[in-house]
Write a structure and sequence with these properties.
Length: 266
């Protein structure tokens, strides 16, 4: 679907998405020339517009869902975490990457709204979606903190770290808190998926989505075990986290991208 087709098919969603994307893009471009208060206001406004865009898509009839709405919700969850954390830790600096991500995912969801679900096959399906997207958001938050941790470590080694920078140990602690929460929700997602299959008296289907999700779950579990038993930290922990996040992204989002964009099926 091209942009013109998206505008014609759903003009109200197109307007909301376009305004939200413009707010994000303006923030990503001009954040260095804005005060801290102006940045918070602009980010909160973009966040609210993003939420209205998501609500418009998810509450419409029929419900549509796919790889792009999943990415858009994940980006919104990341921004929600950042808005809360930036109040607790003013040193946390990830504004423009998250704003750019928000703009990109909002427009992608407009162009690829996903498959239509006139009726839900099982009451477990919304729970499965919610748990899965929440696990995406928490693992994504862990990845953002790991990236900030690597950046802080490089700055400290090169002697360019400032006194107002986020403490490295605090970033590491926050990273693993998000990893643990993401692992718990991913476990619940897989259980809900099993219940969803059982509701239709189906066996567990080992498709691409399931395989990559289970591999991500196993990698995250190994990372947490290594942290607990062997004190893993630094590069090995960050690389395992990136691997787990990549496998998780290849699960639902990757499989749906192939179906919707490459094969052009819904």
């Amino acid at each position: 679907m091209n942009l013109l087709a998206a505008l014609v098919a759903n003009p109200s969603a197109a307007v909301l998405s376009s305004v939200a994307a413009l707010c994000y893009a303006a923030l990503a471009w001009a954040h260095r020339r804005m005060s801290a208060t102006q940045v918070r206001i602009a980010l909160a406004a973009a966040w609210l517009l993003h939420l209205l865009t998501l609500a418009h898509g998810l509450l419409a009839a029929p419900v549509r869902f796919g790889f792009a709405p999943a990415l858009s919700i994940t980006a919104w969850l990341l921004l929600t975490v950042y808005l809360v954390e930036s109040r607790l830790y003013p040193q946390l600096q990830a504004r423009w990457p998250l704003a750019a991500l928000g703009a990109l995912t909002v427009l992608t969801a407009l162009l690829f709204p996903g498959a239509s679900y006139p009726t839900l096959k099982s009451p477990w399906l919304p729970l499965h979606w919610a748990l899965g997207i929440a696990s995406y958001g928490l693992i994504g938050a862990a990845v953002v903190h790991a990236w900030l941790m690597q950046r802080a470590e490089r700055a400290m080694r090169s002697g360019t770290a400032s006194d107002t920078s986020m403490p490295l140990l605090t970033l590491e602690r926050l990273t693993f808190r998000f990893v643990g929460a993401g692992f718990a929700l991913l476990t619940a997602t897989l259980i809900a998926g099993g219940l969803f299959a059982e509701a239709f008296r189906h066996a567990w289907v080992w498709d691409h989505k399931t395989i990559f999700s289970v591999l991500s779950w196993a990698t995250t579990g190994i990372l947490l075990w290594g942290r607990w038993r062997m004190g893993w930290r630094g590069r090995i922990a960050v690389r395992m986290l990136y691997l787990a996040a990549g496998l998780l992204l290849l699960g639902y989002v990757g499989s749906r991208f192939v179906i919707e964009v490459v094969l052009q099926r819904t």
